[in-house]
Specification:
By secondary structure, the chain is of the alpha+beta class. About 25% of the residues lie in helices and about 25% in strands. The chain has three domains: about 70 residues, Ubiquitin-like (UB roll); about 120 residues, Cathepsin B, Chain A; about 190 residues, Cathepsin B, Chain A, CATH 3.90.70. Strand 16 and strand 17 form a beta hairpin. InterPro entries: Papain-like_cys_pep_sf, Peptidase_C19_UCH, Ubiquitin-like_dom, Ubiquitin-like_domsf, UBP14-like, USP, USP_CS.
Length: about 450
């Protein structure tokens, strides 16, 4: 069902809420979020009566519910005092104690770019969005994307939803926005993100899985839209590898494309480059045709092409079957502000990078000014030296992937860092960011986002 918003009224206890608009292009979850805002009754506690067929279900189609203007509905349910309902936008409250309180143009101070309201265990999504918003060429590409939010294709619908969120994050006069529309689309596209616990509350999810889902859908949507695959243009890492059997002479050459490097964390890993090296050189078990049995192989990977934006994931979580949870490795692993991946590249790529690195060194040793390659955030900077500059960190605080709290730490176009703790935004220093290396229960890096930096 598509069309203009329909106005209804809802009675809850002794209150009647009039002029509530239902958008037929959105899911019932969005309508339930509106009621949560008004009443404090979270969606899982809501029983809405008045539609054809009985109670309103999350997956119901408006066309089958007899939705019409001026309908009178009834809401049953009790508020959850421990969970604050998300307002449509953060209200601009005047403080009577401020010296500017009598100024009708007074606006509350804003620490930086807008935050995102937590709609109940959605920090994994909020932190992912804030980090991806730092990839300005991706934001620019979505600005010109023509897909519709009511598209039948799930990837196109999610891309249109993210375009709307990115657009609203450009605001400079509000403290936070409500991402309920994008959340509804994300849960519709991938029901994993709509999982509830045994109390009916939406569960915490893994931010890395959310990151991967968003990029995968964006890749499909942009290609369907007739554009080149901007996602792979920005993030794709082409790898060349070899599997060598330790017990025979078998060798198998491999090629694959990934969108992130893995930082493995063992007892010998103290720094990010060490973890990346372990991730590129590992022992695996696989079938040997020569031995006609399973054998140990040495798998070696090298980077064959570098992307403008490099994502590194810390492999901090592992499955504990006895407890049925993803447990966390708390080890302190430092990460550099400038990451050099030259040593992880194929010899052919190293030759290409070496020529540029030598040229840059020659310029830097002279009086000429070198171009860092990061002056225009909206433009794609090719990775020509193998050096990258840190521009965002997604952290996790807690002991398990499906619990705890995710936060985004993002650098602006200058040298200022912002901490996006859902709707709470604060200014940080580079030294604050360096402390996110782990070793305890404080926020620790889970994903690092680097941007090509063509200096050495």
């Amino acid at each position: 069902m598509t069309g203009s918003p329909v106005t209804v009224s809802v009675k809850w206890k002794k209150e009647i809420f009039t002029d509530i608009q239902i958008d037929p292009d959105e899911t019932p979850q969005v309508f339930k979020s509106q009621l949560w805002t008004l009443t404090g009754v979270p969606p899982e506690r809501q029983t809405i009566i008045g539609f054809k067929g009985g109670k309103l279900k999350d997956d119901a189609e408006w066309s089958a519910l007899g939705l019409r203007p001026n309908m009178k509905l009834m809401l049953l349910g009790t508020p959850d005092e421990s969970r604050l309902a998300p307002p449509a936008e953060l209200p601009k409250v005047r403080n009577d104690l401020d010296v500017d309180a009598d100024d009708e143009n007074y606006q509350p101070p804003v620490a930086g770019p807008p935050g995102l309201l937590n709609l109940g265990n959605t920090c994994y999504m909020n932190s992912t969005i804030q980090c991806l918003n730092a990839v300005r060429p991706l934001v620019k590409s979505l600005t010109t994307y023509t897909g519709r939010p009511d598209a039948m294709n799930p990837a196109e619908k999610l891309a249109a939803g993210l375009r709307e969120v990115f657009g609203r994050l450009k605001a400079t006069d509000i403290a936070s926005i409500n991402p309920i529309r994008f959340l509804a689309v994300l849960r519709q596209v991938n029901p994993q993100f709509a999982e509830r616990n045994n109390r009916g509350i939406f569960m915490q999810q893994d931010a890395e899985e959310c990151w991967g889902e968003i990029l995968s859908r964006l890749s499909t949507a942009l290609k369907r839209n007739g554009e080149e695959n901007q996602v792979d243009n920005l993030f794709a890492i082409k790898m060349r590898g070899e599997d060598k059997c330790d017990e025979s002479e078998e060798r198998i050459n491999r090629q694959e494309t990934v969108r992130a490097l893995k930082c493995h964390i063992s007892k010998s890993v103290n720094h990010l480059p060490q973890g990346i090296k372990e991730g590129l050189e590992e022992k695996i078990e696989k079938q040997s045709d020569a031995l006609e049995r399973s054998a140990t192989w040495t798998r070696t990977n090298r980077i064959d092409t570098l992307p403008p934006f490099l994502v590194v994931q810390f492999v901090r979580f592992f499955w504990k079957p006895t407890e049925g949870v993803k447990a966390k490795i708390l080890r302190n692993v430092s990460f550099p502000v400038v990451l050099d991946v030259f040593d992880f590249c194929t010899s052919e790529l190293q030759e290409k990078l070496r020529a540029k690195r030598d040229a840059v060194r020659a310029l830097e040793s002279s009086s000429e000014t070198t171009n860092t390659g990061i002056s225009d955030d909206d433009e794609i900077v090719p990775a020509e030296t193998g050096n990258y500059e840190l521009c965002a960190v997604l952290t996790h605080q807690g002991r398990a992937a499906d619990s705890g709290h995710y936060v985004a730490w993002v650098k602006d176009s200058g040298s200022k860092w912002y901490k996006f703790d859902d709707d709470k935004v604060s200014i940080q220093t580079e030294e604050d960011v360096k402390k996110l290396s782990g070793g305890g229960d404080w926020h620790m890096a889970y994903m690092c986002l680097y941007r090509a930096k063509n200096t050495v």
